[in-house]
C-alpha cells in the first residue's frame, strides 16, 4: 500500500503545478461508527501549500501559552534546495467540495484583548496571487473555536485552483503596549468528486455526511458538517466523541476540548 501511495504521489508530482486536479473516489463507510477519523488524500505535490497552522510562540495576555490555531490538516515534507541542503516544510492544506466553504480557528483570547480579527482569501494561479475576499470579524467574547464563512455573494471557489487564506488576530494586552500579531495561514482547494460519492452524499443524513467526507479526505466539509451538528445539539455526547476523534486524527488533540462558539460575523472596519 505504501509503495502504491508513493507511486501515485510521484505521478502527480511529475504532472502537476499549482493546480491539483484530484478526483475523489468513493470509499465504503460504516455510518454507525461512534467516532470519525480523517483519512488524508495525497498532499499537494509542490511547495505552494506551505503555511503555519498556529502561532510560533506564546503571545501572553490572557492566553497563557496558547496561540491562534487553524483547524486544518498538516503535511510534513522536504524539498531539495540545492545539492547539499534538504529543507523541511509544513504544508497546511485541505480539500472542499463547496463553492463557499467554512474555515475554523481556535482563538485563545478574550474580546477585551483583541484589537481586530482579519480574514483574507487569495486566489493563486500561475504563481500569482489575487485577493478575492477580505473581512474583519467581531471578536468572540471568550476563548474558543470560531468559524469564518465565505459568503455566497463573494466569488465562488473554482475547481482545481489553490486558494491561500490568512487569519490574523491583532492583540493588545494593555493600552501601554503595542499591538501583537498572532496568525495562521494555509490553503484550500475545491475538488471534483466521482458520481458514486455524489450519490452517497445525496442520500445521506448530515451525520452520515461527516463520515463520508472524512473517509474520502474532504476536510473542510467534514468539520463544517460536524460543527453544524454540534451547534444544533450541544449536549450530544456522541457528537462530541466524533469531534474529538476527528481533531485527534489530524494532530489537534490540544484544542479538541475547546468550546465551539457560534459567533463572529463580519463587520465593517
Descriptive report:
Helix 4 runs antiparallel to helix 5. Strands 3-4-10-9-6-7-12 form a seven-stranded mixed sheet, with helices on one face. The chain has one domain: Immunoglobulin-like. The model is unreliable at 1-34 (pLDDT under 50). The chain has helices at 2-15, 195-203, 206-215, 219-232, 237-248, and strands spanning 23-24, 69-70, 74-80, 86-96, 102-107, 114-125, 128-137, 144-149, 162-171, 180-190, 192-193, 266-267. With 269 residues, it is an alpha+beta fold.
Task: Please summarize what this structure is.
The chain is α+β, with helices and mostly antiparallel strands.
Order of helices and strands: HEEEEEEEEEEEHHHHE
**Can you give the mean pLDDT?**
84
Strand order of the largest sheet: 3-4-10-9-6-7-12
Examine the secondary-structure arrangement and name the CATH architecture.
Sandwich
What is the general shape? globular
The total count of helices amounts to 5
Structural class: alpha+beta
CATH topology descriptor: Immunoglobulin-like
User: What's the main sheet like?
Assistant: 7 strands, mixed
Rg, nearest Å: 19 Å
Regions with little confidence, pLDDT below 50 for 5+ residues: 1-34
CATH class: Mainly Beta
Total domain modules: 1
Helix content: 10-25%
Number of strands: 12
β-strand percent reads 25-35%
First CA to last CA: what distance?
Answer: 51 Å
CATH superfamily: Macroglobulin (MG2) domain
Topology at a glance:
Layout lengths: L1 H14 L7 E2 L44 E2 L3 E7 L5 E11 L5 E6 L6 E12 L2 E10 L6 E6 L12 E10 L8 E11 L1 E2 L1 H9 L2 H10 L3 H14 L4 H12 L17 E2 L2
